[in-house]
Amino acid sequence: MSETSSPTNEAPLLDTGVERDLQNVQESGLLDYRSESLPTWCPGCGYYGITHAMTEAINELDIEPHNLVFVSGIGCAGRYPFFMNAYGLHAIHGRAVPMGAGVKIANPDLSVIVVGGDGDGLGIGGGHLSHAIRRNVDITYILFDNGIYGLTKGQTSPTTPQEQITGTHPYGNPDMPLDAVTLGISYRASFVARGYAGQQHDLTPIMRRAFAHKGFSFVVVYTPCVTFDKVNITYENMRGNWKPLPDDYDDGNILEAMKYAMDDTLWHGVFYEEQRPTFHDHERETAEKARS
Ligand SMILES: Cc1ncc(C[n+]2csc(CCOP(=O)(O)OP(=O)(O)O)c2C)c(N)n1
Ligand code: SF4
Q1: How far apart are CA 115 and CA 100, in angstroms?
Q2: Is beta strand 266-273 parallel, antiparallel or unpaired with respect to 191-196?
Q3: What are phi and psi of 266, to 5 degrees?
Q4: Could you tell me if the CB of 58 is within 6 A of ligand 2?
Q5: How far apart (Å, rounded) are the C-alpha atoms in residues 268 and 271?
Q6: Whose CA is nearest to atom 1 of ligand 2?
Q7: Residue in 83, 58, 71 with CA at minimum distance from that of residue 114
Q8: Pairing of β 242-244 and β 266-273
Q9: How far, in Å, CA of 240 to CA of 284, rounded?
Q10: Measured from the CB, is residue 75 less than 6 Å from ligand 1?
């Protein structure tokens, strides 16, 4: 090979676009919200997709890390606050929602986002959801619904379908599963949405609306546990059975919300939103009454 035809050091042999992607990410501001701890979730876990959508939404709304608190319960989802650059509270099992409500009540200026798994939120913590919802505390609760206990290695959770074989039910789960979206609507959360970890471009706008909502916003995200669930919420099963709510869908109609939530098709989007006084509005009103 002559000297003139040899490759130079400056020109990359193969342009994979990795450097460009890295530069785009660095310029986007997304990394401002990520801590130095790299996530310890299994490769392929849906939680990476949820994290990306949440981070994009927070970045777009320009919520600064010092005004942001993540509160979690116990489970793989419970590790979330460690991976984010914000205030964080890794609470006890099933108590993420009341702890998040407590943080908001103590300092209403903070944006509070509670995260947790279906076991944490609907099993051991199931009794707390209804009360935070009816008080309309101004926090967002993202339920990472993988239909299984992930951290403890694949036991039946409250959202595991009937007949599914799990670590605790080797002959199949006999119990009817709960559906978090219909629960949220029937408790009348002032914001209820459903998203999917594998559909990030749809998940980010849902998150953005949830974080901007005044009152309790409840987002249920279906997310594959690639390690312990090979039959239910898998990337393969979700493909094709997942549709955005129709363009003319009325998210202020609670009966429509329930109808779509109970449908066999997995609709995603914001099912219901209403504006009503929050916990803090009532607090202020009570204080004024007491003063006068
Ligand atoms: C009081 C109490 N009971 C049980 C456990 C064991 N435990 C830890 S995480 C978990 C369930 C996790 O499942 P889920 O909430 O769905 O979250 P995931 O791990 O799937 O993200 C259980 C039963 C515990 N830590 N504390
Ligand atoms: S066990 Fe399941 S939920 Fe937990 S990190 Fe692994 S894939 Fe995700």
Answers
A1: 9
A2: antiparallel
A3: -85, 90
A4: no
A5: 8
A6: 150
A7: 71
A8: parallel
A9: 48
A10: yes
Ligand nearest to the CA of 41: 2
Coil, strand, or helix at residue 31? helix
Do 165 and 147 touch, CB atoms closer than 8 A?
Answer: no
Residue with tokens 């790299």: 38
Reply yes or no on whether the pLDDT at 2 is more than 50: no
Contacts of 186 (CB under 8 A, 6+ apart): 258
Q: What is the mean pLDDT of the chain?
A: 94
151 ligand 1 Cβ < 6 A: yes
Q: How far apart are CA 84 and CA 51, in angstroms?
A: 9
Determine the Cα angle at 97 with ends 95 and 102, to 5°. 95
* Residue whose CA lies nearest to ligand 2 atom number 6: 42
Q: Is the CB of 149 under 6 A from ligand 1?
A: yes
pLDDT digits (tens, 9 = 90+) for 242-292: 899 999 999 999 999 999 999 999 999 999 999 999 999 999 999 999 999
